[in-house]
């Protein structure tokens, strides 16, 4: 048997300039999930899901538009589709959502991976919006998650969600149009 020889660098096919430019401007996606961690395990998870190209399509946190109302309603319906999952706290912002998702063991129930739950959530929001705006891309690929490991992290995630609407205005140098207690 003859072993094929490696092609020399000069004889390998070259990437076209446009492909090289694309790769330089679109670095490989960073995987934020912990290898070998079972994301169907009962636990608390802090998640962030951003809209496509971070477009502001949900209205404001204190006054959700129709798209924002769909995002909130579908988030709250997660337990109907996944009985082992619940939404402990959430906020729908103009271009993203934050939520604390709780996964529990239930007798006789099957556990679903967090990615399955969030994938179904994103799909259901998209399907409802596409009824009126079929051409609209709603979500950015993937999502951010953090495993909440203790009470301190839980309180920090809760506070972050509570304060996010005010931070939205402050970070943009805009006056805050309401008191945080109003949201």
- What is the count of structural domains? 1
Number of helices: 5
Helix-strand pattern, N to C? HEHHEEHEH
What's the average pLDDT? 85
Shape: globular
- Poorly predicted sequence stretches spanning 5 or more consecutive residues: 1-9
Give me the oligomer status: single chain
Main sheet: strands, sense, barrel = 4 strands, antiparallel
Percentage beta strand: 15-25%
Q: Strand order, main sheet: write it out.
A: 2-3-1-4
CATH superfamily: Transposase IS200-like
Radius of gyration: 21 Å
Would you tell me which CATH topology applies? Alpha-Beta Plaits
The CATH class name reads: Alpha Beta
Task: Report the helical percentage.
Answer: 25-40%
Please state the second-level CATH architecture: 2-Layer Sandwich
Strand tally is 4
Ends distance = 73 Å
**SS class:** alpha+beta
